[in-house]
Amino acid sequence: MALVSILPRMSRHPAVSISGNADLASKARVLAWWEKYLVGPSSGQFGANVKPHLKIISIGTFAEHGRDVFEIEHEAVVSEAFLNCNNVMHGGCTAFIMDVCTTSVLFPFSEQRMNVSLNLDVIYHAPAPLGTRLHIVSTSVALNKRVLTLSCEIYDADRGTLLATGKHMKMYP
């Protein structure tokens, strides 16, 4: 009986609109952390002009080699805020997007602890000019007690071209 009484509220929750097979609670946790820490009030913070362009489109989970893997997909369109002097997405912007999107993979887990980047390796494969629709796929690789390893791939959503790949290692200080 109690379950029936909460269903109408759940159906109006923004997490319902996110695709992917992750449970609704995990999706809600990701959206709550995303809004609070990554897209919310950010006046004066680094990347404040880039973060609002990033949208979560899918939150999924699957088993691989006996472990649970989370995968979050984002999308964005390259705007003027992303560009370098050659009118393509700046490498620093690419790294920033990877940092933010891979960190979101940690949000499904109920225990949130402060973590910091230990290393972020980015390989640039192709340029992304103004107007390019980005498809960003971030995945948990290994989440240990102290070190967290995440991966990211950024694609041109319309051409299917791989633009950049990265590995992000984070740690609990």
Automatic annotation (TrEMBL):
Q: Which CDD domains match?
A: PaaI_thioesterase
Q: Domain Thioesterase spans what residues?
A: 86-161
Asked whether the keyword NADP is assigned, the reply is no
SUPFAM superfamilies from the UniProt entry: Thioesterase/thiol ester dehydrase-isomerase
Q: What InterPro entries does its record include?
A: ACOT13 (IPR039298), HotDog_dom_sf (IPR029069), Thioestr_dom (IPR006683)
Q: Which Pfam families match?
A: 4HBT
Gene3D superfamilies registered for this protein in UniProt? Hotdog Thioesterase (3.10.129.10)
Keywords on record: Hydrolase
Q: Which is one GO molecular function term here?
A: fatty acyl-CoA hydrolase activity
Q: Family membership, please give it.
A: Belongs to the thioesterase PaaI family.
Q: Which PANTHER family match?
A: ACYL-COENZYME A THIOESTERASE 13 (PTHR21660:SF1), THIOESTERASE SUPERFAMILY MEMBER-RELATED (PTHR21660)
Task: Give the protein's recorded name.
Answer: Thioesterase domain-containing protein
